[in-house]
Amino acid sequence: MTMTIAIPLAGGKLCSHFGHCQEFAFVGVADGKITGVTKKTPPPHEPGVFPAWLAGEGADTILAGGMGERAQALFRQNGVKVVCGVAAGAPEEVVEAYLKGTLVTGANPCNHDEDGHQCHGG
């Protein structure tokens, strides 16, 4: 089985706020093992852009810290599985834990950010 897992990054690690990421890591997986990591700069962030762009780039799963409900729905509409509440970490470490079934997920921090504003996500 092959898959491509997308991870939003800031400073080389999983970004806790999906819509604020600087780049995405695309982690290729075949037969339960990482086959490669490619980093790409996303188009300018506007509502609805990231889900369509990531699906078009071949992502079938996204591991994210926080993401708004609308973005999650748009990902699902584009055939991309969403896993939220993932703690910051290097893309390879996060994907390894996901593949082993040991990835710990917490609350989706995108329900409200530190300032009490709603997170917009995709």
From TrEMBL:
Q: Which Pfam families match?
A: Nitro_FeMo-Co
Give the InterPro entries listed for this entry: Di-Nase_FeMo-co_biosynth, DiNase_FeMo-co_biosyn_sf, MTH1175_dom
UniProt superkingdom: Bacteria
Coiled-coil blocks:
none
All copies of domain Dinitrogenase iron-molybdenum cofactor biosynthesis, residue ranges: 11-100
Instruction: Provide the protein name.
Output: NifB/NifX family molybdenum-iron cluster-binding protein
